[in-house]
Amino acid sequence: MDESYDVIVLGTGLKESVLSGLMSVNGKKVLHLDQNKYYGGESASLTPLKDVYTYFTKEMPGGDDSMGRGRDWNVDLIPKFLMATGKLVNILINSGVTRYLEFKSVEGSYVFKDGKVHKVPATETEALTSSLLSLGEKNSFRGFLKYIAEFNPEDLKDEVDPETTTAQELYDKFGLSKSTVDFTGHALGLYRDDSYLAQPCGKTIRRIKLYSESLARYGKSPYLYPMYGLGELPQGFARLSAIYGGTYMLDKPIDEITMEDGKVTGVKSGGEVAKCSMVIGDPKYFPDRVKKVGQVVRAICLLNHSVPNTSDAASCQIIIPQGQVNRKSDIYVLIVSHAHHVATKGHYIALVATTVETGEPEDELKPGLDLLGPIVEKFVSVSDMYEPNDDGKENQLFISSSYDATTHFETVLDDIQDIYLRATGEAIDFSKVQHDLEANKDSQ
């Protein structure tokens, strides 16, 4: 390990793994270290089932085979879905990492309103039949979706300016009610709270377009999920990095990040020092350089039945908008099952997550937990959320933000793109990626 690298990456979470792969593709000499013995960090998948009980320090019921073979379970610590035409899928395709992975579409997208679970309408046809909309509002919402689909910022034909018109003003233009705005912004636009309503509507238009285009790709929902769980994603990018010369080391203690004149010079591990000019890493490796910005509470629940009111979906997402339960932030429910090879047949894994707002975090999950029906086992965690104290440009330490409560990857990719831009001064460029990765490997 006593040699020099361009970049040292600390942690094998998805963010760090994607950045490691992209830096390697960009011609950088990369060393990737993790103090854990496994890939994935916070975004790891645990298997067999007994490892989940061990992780959460619970006793696994002995002699009970009702949950099937333990090795058939792959339980994500932070499950999230991919938007079918979203940023992460684009990175996977353009980097060639898709050759290592298999995806399956998610069966449903739902939203909670007035005490009930409803399918999210995202097309003009669905808008006309949706139970979410009153008869008088169906045509208004249909017109809104048509407007979004056809919107062209280069050809503005009315008074809507994506840079100055607010999201609320856009909704008002179509006469959408507060309840319709509620599910549109949170279930289609995937906003976590209502602060976006006072901001320019351009981002909202792009988000709803992304949802609709992703839905059009597969039909049932806009989401995808990898077979065998999210743990496959960091490993796919680890393979990409290795093909381009990256070096990976697990189970390595991170003793010190060495600095000189205010800039990083290397990483010390077990008496050895690897020199470098840049470090990228998970916030847990930089306790003195991050600030706590909140907490996320998550409950991973094992079920032996499908979730009620989801048409027996083998996988789906349910969003509970903040306004429906008198909160400041949304509650997210994600369900996967044997259909994605993450549980034994007849079993389901449900995640309920939200941003902590009170001194009783688990109680805040109740609206989501109540939707699940009987729960076989529940694992609850409360995680601190951190952000870096600065942009890292001066000291060349680029720190990722903690994973939020959302059950999709769009905010994760926002952070990846931002770190890459700050670290390199350039946007992510896939033209440098050689699609025939095996040929590249053979030539080295």
From TrEMBL:
Sorted alphabetically, which keywords does the UniProt record give?
Cytoplasm, GTPase activation
* GO biological-process terms attached to the record: protein transport; small GTPase-mediated signal transduction; vesicle-mediated transport
InterPro entries assigned to the protein according to its UniProt record, in alphabetical order = FAD/NAD-bd_sf, GDP_dissociation_inhibitor, RabGDI
- Any one Gene Ontology cellular component term annotated for this protein: cytosol
Q: Where is this protein localized, as stated in its record?
A: Cytoplasm
Q: List the molecular function annotations (GO) for this entry.
A: GTPase activator activity; Rab GDP-dissociation inhibitor activity
Major subcellular site:
cytoplasm
- Is Cytoplasm among this UniProt entry's keywords? yes
Task: Report the protein's function.
Answer: Regulates the GDP/GTP exchange reaction of most RAB proteins by inhibiting the dissociation of GDP from them, and the subsequent binding of GTP.
Family of this protein: Belongs to the Rab GDI family.
The name this protein goes by in its record: Rab GDP dissociation inhibitor
> What is the organism field in this record?
Strongylocentrotus purpuratus (Purple sea urchin)
